[in-house]
Amino acid sequence: MGRSLSIIKRCSTLTSLSTRQVLQALVLSHLDCCSVVWSEESQGTGNATEHTITTLPIVIWKWEEIHFPYLVALWVLVSWLCKLVFQQNPCLTSVIPESGLLICIGWVLGGIIYGADKVQTFRLQPFTFFFYLLPQIVLDAGYSMPNKLFFGNLGAILVYAVIGTCWNAATLGLALWGCWLGGAMGDIDTGLLQLLLFGSLIAAVDPVAVIAVFEEVHVNEVLYILVFGESLLNDGVTVVLFNVFNAFVSLGGAQIDAVEIIKGIISFFVVAVGGSLVGVVFALLITLLTRCTKNIQIIEPGFIFVLGYLSYLTAEMLSLSAILSCTFCGVCCQKYINANMDERSVSTVRYTMKVFANGSETIIFVFLGISAIDPSIWVWNTAFILLTLLFIFVFRFIGVFLLTWILNQYRLVPLDFIDQVVMGYGGLRGAVAYGLVLLLDENTYKEKKLMVSTTFIVVYFTVMLQGITMKPLVTWLKVKRAAVAERTLAEKLQNRTFDHMLVAIEDISGQIGDNYMRDKWNNFEEKWLYWLLMTPFARKSCDPIFNIFHKLNIKDATSYVKEGERRGSLAFVRNESKADVDFNKNEYVSFFPSRRDSVPSVCLDMHEQDLKMRESEDFDAHHVLQQHLYKGRKQHRHRYSQKHLEVSKDEHEVQEIFQRTMRSRLESFKSAKMGVAPPKISKHLKKDQPQKVREDCTQCDNMYVVYLTLSGIVNPAFMAEMDTMDPMPPMQQIPSWLAEAEVDSSTVAPSQRAQLRLPWTPSNLRRLAPLRLSTHSNDSFLLADSPATQEGISEIIGHVNLPSKSMDSVYLTKPIP
Amino acid sequence: MGSTNSTLSKIPNVEELVQETGFTPAHIVRLYDRFEALDKEKTGHLRPQDFGAINRLAINPIGDRIIGAFFSPGQETVDFHSFVRILAHFRPADKKRPKDPSMPEPVNSRTSKLKFAFQLYDQDKDGKISRAELLQVLRSMLEMQVTEEQLESIADRTIQEADLDTDDAISFEEFRKSLEKVNIDHKMSIRFLR
């Protein structure tokens, strides 16, 4: 996009060095040590090497040679240590967002350096920022982006990003111009175009700041994705506006005619779309590469980073939007590379990205603080600064409300007032604006220092003040609303039921949310992309139900082993008597990711209310309901977090529901076959009248078999029995783990969980053994233990999973031979 | 997908459907495509297994109940008309419908939607949600960690709050009353695509 180009061009014109030499000098002077010091030192080095030595030096002081990398490393270390410092005090971090604290520490450090050197030797240079600190943050943002949510809301995000940013820029520029004309700012040398440029660079919401602040305020998913998506995608607009106005200012006001304006509009499309395309191309490259890296798994993660960075640089080189390119690279490749790569590589990539991103963010904020402690850059013009702050704030809110009002006409789930307020308030500016403002040419922009100062103030205001007050604001707003409408238990329950109902109806009617396009895309993806981009093994594991099945088996295997360890050894398997396996809840809670008591999505208020209601009896019921209702698909908390590598907590919820559903279906099929009423939780085993309609049976068999398979137990002998419809009451042959066992006094009363899902205990397996005719054990338990038989599972699933477009045919299969 | 007209001609009684449910012909065509996609064996009817084939329903706590709601009591299959009629409950309410007392209640009015929701609870169709039925629903919607006693106390409280005539069950009127503050139209509508 020409940021780098403009710096280099500017330098070469100023110093009449060739571009290449300028580039070299730039690269070498990253930390912007005072140029005087630099030249002195280089001379010193030269002199030193000319000294003749009179005796063999044992140790030499080599500071001049290594001081550059040393300083870089030292500064990185110092920045990260700052983070360590205030993490010691968690109360502090809960009030002031981390970014704010980092800036404060930056001030302190800057003060120290300034005090020591009388000049600010270390500043955040735009080049460093844009090429060494920003790319990893953007790449991490793209890679961890919740895709479904992102693309589902893409329309709204684009509206906010494009129209919203243009609105912000235009109104701010015009308003400032109006005030300048009115003389409110005193005598500053600027003009409409310059003010418009300033408006455009300060109008953009900053992704770094948004991540930093929203991390700690848990807002609901949709809101988060809207603000966050906007902050990423508005780079396209910002870049264009910046370049266009920069060019206009250089051309001079007189040269601007319709042609130029049209060119400006065209350049927007080229830059934005081009940048995204570059990102997509690189995503393709990454995916294809991971398809072939089976044998060099150790460097696999490296490819992701290098190619991601290259996508950023390539877009930059072509003067397209680099942030868009990097974002879309991450967004498009995440699904496929996660499937293609080995699990360890995936963890490595995820974790390393977070390390880099978090690290960069820390450095950025510390340096934002340090760079401010430099009297030479400050020019204070109260009116300008205050007016800018005011206008930014006001116009942001107006813009958000206007756009949301328009959008709500088309959205199925409208954004309510509180969300809009939070969105408006969350329009944080940050380091990107700072980097852009430093790129301005001093000669063209006489008031550059003023603009820099204003940018600093704006950034500090938004990051610190708005960051600090964001959480209290959210809490306050919600509490106010909730007090007005206190919901009854029935309402709460029913609301959740409605959510589930809607999801179910959407699934049945095939209208997924709102997106016919998504359906088409899914089909296209399954047909072509999976084949092209993913390894064969990865393709198979894409089915979500298979994944659940797989995870359930792993969990069972783990519990089996754990139980064995608890009892001393796995030898207890051989014990013929019914195992005294007490699967009480306590032992199993550890398997479920503990429900962190972070405030769930939108309901900060409910938390408060529950605390208030502690005295009344109502507390129990409301609280339990609140905590334990299954969340519908729409309500899952946002999973994107820069600091935490979260496994989504709703996975265990999904598994529970899946198990339960399978179980009840199994029971209802069983009863349909046998002609008994659907069993209640604890009895029966009636030997009963045969049967029902025979025609049903073949269907039922298939279904039954499939359900059995998916529940993890495949018993060919058993199935053979079913097929022949043995007159002997099949009940007896149903492994007793399936049917509810008679309550035996020797067994421990099963827990809640065990009642609903009798665990596949080793002892139960024992009972199963005589029924097996084949030696090949298909039981998931044992399979899970031995990796060699993983193929067994996939084979079975291979039977079950007829590859088909809609993937709905998992349950309808040919009978398993 | 075939042209709309040709698909439309395959569906019997389209005009009647349009009248009754308020879907446009384009909607109906899309729903017909979906119906055919679900009806793998091309029998013209759907059975519970066909619904069971939809993966995502398996991970929905009330998925099976919803499936059950499609089947009228005693029937084991669903034909296209019933399919569409049930789905019509979820059409967003028509804002400009004149209140005409002589016309039967349209299928996507607030009352009809509530009736549908009520039937999800009331499995034995006696017009009341008994304590046992409520317990069943609660059990399926709450995590396993919740104990029986907690469940029962929640069920008791819920009935207490909603039950106005103290018969220890929730009738449709009481159900409706307890939900008067909820925006049913929003909560029970999905946007149907053309």
Describe the structure.
The complex is a heterodimer of chains A (817) and B (194). Chain A is mainly alpha-helical and 817 residues long. Among the domains of chain A are: 126-477, Na+/H+ antiporter like fold, CATH 1.20.1530.20; 489-562, no CATH class. Chain A is 67% helix and 0% strand. Chain A has helices at residues 3-15, 19-28, 35-50, 63-87, 90-95, 98-117, 126-143, 147-152, 154-181, 192-203, 207-214, 221-251, 258-292, 300-317, 322-340, 343-372, 382-408, 417-425, 431-438, 448-484, 489-509, 516-533, 536-540, 544-566, 585-589, 604-612, 618-628, 650-674, 694-711, 716-724, 752-756, 762-768, 780-785, 790-800. In chain A, helix 10 runs antiparallel to helix 19 and helix 19 (431-438) runs antiparallel to helix 20. Chain A is globular. Chain B folds into 2 domains: 11-89, Recoverin, domain 1 (Orthogonal Bundle); 104-188, Recoverin, domain 1 (Orthogonal Bundle). In chain B, 54% of the residues lie in helices and 2% in strands. Chain B has a two-stranded antiparallel ribbon with strand order 1-2. The longest helix of chain B is centred in the C-terminal third of the chain and has 15 residues, at 148-162. Chain B is globular, with a radius of gyration of 19 Å. At the A-B interface, helix 21, helix 24, helix 27, helix 28 and helix 31 of A face helix 3, helix 4, helix 5, helix 6 and helix 9 of B. Chain A: It is a multi-pass membrane protein. Chain A: GO terms for molecular function: potassium:proton antiporter activity; sodium:proton antiporter activity.
C-alpha termini separation of chain A: 62 Å
Shape of chain B: globular
The proportion of strand residues of chain A reads under 5%
The CATH superfamily of the largest domain in chain B is EF-hand
Q: What is the overall pLDDT average of chain B?
A: 79
**SS content category of chain B:** mainly alpha
Low-confidence stretches of chain A: 31-48, 576-617, 676-817
Q: How much helical structure, as a percent, in the residues of chain A? A: 55-70%
The dominant shape of chain A is globular
The greatest inter-chain interface is formed by: A-B, 66 and 61 residues
> Which structural class is indicated by helix and strand composition of chain A?
mainly alpha
The CATH architecture category of the largest domain in chain B equals Orthogonal Bundle
The proportion of residues forming helix of chain B, as a percent range, comes to 40-55%
Distance N terminus to C terminus of chain B? 12 Å
- The pLDDT mean of chain A sits at 71
Task: Tell me the number of strands of chain A.
Answer: 0
CATH class of the largest domain in chain B: Mainly Alpha
